[in-house]
Amino acid sequence: MFTPTTPDSVLGRGLSRRHLLASAAGGLAVAGLAACSPAQQGEQGPGGGSSGSGGGVSGKVTVRLWDEQVQAAYDEGFAALMDKTPGLEVSTVLVPWDDYFTKLRTDVGSGDGDDIFMMNSSYIQPYITNDLLLEIGSDFDDLRGDWIEPAIEQYSQQDVLYGVPQLTDGGIGVYYNEELLANAGVTPDEVDALTWGGSSDSYIQLAQKLTQDKSGTWGDESGFNGSKPAQWGSSAAQDLQGIYYNFLGSAGGQFQDENGKFIFASPEGETAFGYLVDLINKYKVAPAASNTNDNGDFVRDQFLQGKVATFQSGIYNLKNIADGAKFKWGIVHIPTGPQGRVSVVNNVIVCGNAATKNAEATTEVLRWLGSAEGASYIGKSGAALPAVTGAQQSFTDFWAEEGVDPSIFAEQGQGDSIGAPTGENYNAAFAAWKPHFDEMFLGRTPVAEALAAAQEAANAEIDG
């Protein structure tokens, strides 16, 4: 199975999972939503009590989420909670990431929303504006001190917190296939030291060295045919959290300004996106955009099949890779750009539906999820790093037993970062910019032209 054997990098063994940031097809904004009564809720139960106290809280609570790994951890944790609280019945509802926020908007608006649902910062604003979320108030005062401050800050407005912190990503790293590196005569330390852009660029040359066509010709050799790939050296793709946000930040650019206006059509944006587009279409060291534009899992799956040498992604894929890869793998830092290593950092919360028919039971479950005991089920499964500090050791212990050190993600998360996208009409803005990004990554529209058109379309929607 797995044997750690690496220098300054971090080794592990490696299956799959979805981005925590928005990169799937978005719907329209939630501006028309109004609080309605969910169809799947239990009746208001008597009594009260703190998490797991068994203090008379009863009723049914449903919890919606997008991640299978976290669902399995939640199910185990909820079984323990129900043992402590016999009158409480908690179940999870899995909605795939590609449909998650569209279905959530529709279901909450029609009255079929679950009592609790997982949320990220890109999509939360309309739910706050329309008073669709339970405020995380004094019922949680005894737990808040154990929640990481960046998550509290990210999901608070005017001193009101709108969800219970659950997952924290840290920053982005680069997973590598040790066998593919060795076959090409590349060391993990070389990958860790990569730079991109300008005269000091080493990324393209190494990616070519790790890319091979079906005839066995390497990407840096004469006669290489990138239209018939056998393996790729780079994971460049239209992946917001894993790829292009980090390249944009490392070029010194921003996606949005402090007022939420999109500003990615900048010289820095042209540098970052132009570089990625060239990796795909000019050098052909990454999968074609026709495979990746509408399939956020394509590159990850190719990595697991031993066809991608380096895969840039986050801690959210750690458990999936550990479960799925049949080869030795490791983790190193993201490449250094013109302005250093700059990564996107994100946290995920669970929100209470303001229209729940059983606010007491819903609060009880939220308290459980925000407690060190409740959050530890996520950590000890290795599914994700809890945003509850008292539960984080369980995550560290799980991966220590597997011989894996995931500290690179935390290290990157403490460095320079670029803010996650957000906005009242973010769904609509995403839907507006994506067709232009699709054409840009396909190489059909010049980068500067595509960015300008995408920015104009996105800002028209974000302004409502």
TrEMBL record:
Q: Which organism is it from?
A: Candidatus Avipropionibacterium avicola
A GO cellular component annotated for this chain's UniProt record is:
cell envelope
InterPro entries, alphabetically? Bact_solute-bd_prot1 (IPR050490), SBP (IPR006059), TAT_signal (IPR006311)
Cellular location(s) = Cell envelope
Q: Which family does it belong to?
A: Belongs to the bacterial solute-binding protein 1 family.
Q: Which PROSITE patterns match?
A: TAT
Keyword annotations of the record: Signal, Transport
What protein name is recorded for this chain? Sugar ABC transporter substrate-binding protein
